[in-house]
């Protein structure tokens, strides 16, 4: 920290990689947070293609990457389910009403809450007339307009 230079940071990171997991994480964080922005970017760039040698680094960074990948997959699945539910609501509404207004479509596309979308699919599926289907869309428009 007293010598915020690239070479000093590189030596420090190499030295702490030999420590056990907890202190190594702590010291790595201290070094990276204390390093000036330009040096931090250089260190990060050097680490991009770097193959970790210590057992700790291999385990730590592979766990972090896997956790990040899994979070990304989960978020993608959630977004895909939401998009699928929106498409189902639009398809059912079009089947029950023959045509939708731009406001109807915008209201449905503005809903992200999966439970609300599930409820709309169920309500449109149960609608036995265009009047009932239209009332479901009025509720959807009200829900969409009440959200920030």
Structure, explained:
The chain is mainly alpha-helical and 148 residues long. The chain folds into two domains: 6-70, no CATH class; 78-146, no CATH class. Helices cover 80% and strands 0% of the residues. The chain contains seven helices and no strands. The chain has helices spanning 6-16, 21-34, 37-48, 55-97, 102-109, 114-126, 130-146. α4 packs parallel to α6 (114-126). The radius of gyration is 26 Å and the shape is rod-shaped.
Entry summary:
This protein folds into 2 domains: 6-70, no CATH class; 78-146, no CATH class.
Domain count, please report it.
2
Helix content: over 70%
Distance between the termini: 45 Å
Secondary-structure element series? HHHHHHH
Shape verdict: rod-shaped
Largest sheet data: none
What is the number of helices?
A: 7
Radius of gyration: 26 Å
Which SSEs are present, and which pair or pack?
Layout: H1 6-16, H2 21-34, H3 37-48, H4 55-97, H5 102-109, H6 114-126, H7 130-146
Helix pairs in contact: 1-2, 4-6, 5-7, 6-7
Features:
148 residues, mainly alpha
């Amino acid at each position: 920290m007293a010598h915020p230079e690239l070479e000093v940071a590189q030596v420090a990171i190499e030295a702490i990689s030999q420590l056990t997991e907890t202190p190594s994480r702590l010291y790595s964080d201290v070094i990276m947070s204390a390093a000036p922005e330009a040096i931090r970017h250089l260190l990060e760039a050097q680490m991009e293609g770097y193959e970790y040698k210590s057992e700790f680094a291999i385990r730590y960074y592979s766990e972090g990457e896997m956790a990040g990948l899994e979070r990304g997959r989960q978020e993608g699945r959630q977004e895909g389910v939401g998009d699928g539910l929106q498409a189902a609501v639009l398809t059912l509404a079009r089947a029950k009403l023959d045509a939708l207004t731009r406001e109807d479509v915008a209201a449905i596309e503005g809903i992200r809450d999966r439970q609300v979308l599930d409820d709309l699919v169920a309500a449109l599926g149960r609608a036995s007339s265009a009047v009932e289907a239209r009332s479901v869309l009025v509720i959807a428009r009200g829900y969409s307009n009440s959200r920030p």
